[in-house]
Amino acid sequence: MEKEQVSKRLYVGGLGHTVSRAELEERFGKFGRVLEAEIITRKDDQGNPTKTFAYVSVKISDADLKKCMSVLNKTKWKGGTLQIELAKESFLHRTGSQQDSTNTSYSILMMQIWEMGMEK
Question: Which residues form a coiled coil (predicted)?
Answer without folding.
Answer: none
